[in-house]
Amino acid sequence: MSLNRYERKRDFKVTAEPKGRSARRASGKGGIFVVQEHHARRLHFDLRLECEGVLKSWAVTREPSLNPSERRLAIQTEDHPMEYARFKGEIPKGEYGAGTVKIWDRGTFKSEKEVSEAMDRGLIEVTLRGRKLRGRFVLVRIQGEGEKSSWLFFKRRPKIVGLRIPTVKKAG
Ligand code: MN
To answer: Could you tell me the pTM of the whole model?
Structure first.
């Protein structure tokens, strides 16, 4: 994983955003997540999931929803350093992503599959344990690949458990 794209877009003499280091780490099946409310030119919500020592990132175009029928368009953005999960504050005018960043939600997540493999396949299913986002969520790629690819982010419908169809007893 490389933070080259992240670093190229920013002037760390001007912005207070973390420079970060790229750490090589196994992908794993979970870690931390954060959603940052970003009042840039256009308000969006940056969803970031830990994967191989960096934060995989998506700009979600509207506030994430707990309603499974409200699917959110999420555009993949450049990997961010792990330190970014704690970043909030002001990105100065004229800088990339200028505007206010607030932590909208933060917590941990688990995935049944390796996160990097799930990303490559374009289907990530995670259980989020945040303050706002809790339960099973899905990220599914609908167009493109890598940075700027389009995904949908939504809460999974709960499984119906214990539903049994009664067996009809034969008469006689
Ligand atoms: Mn952003």
So the answer is: 0.88
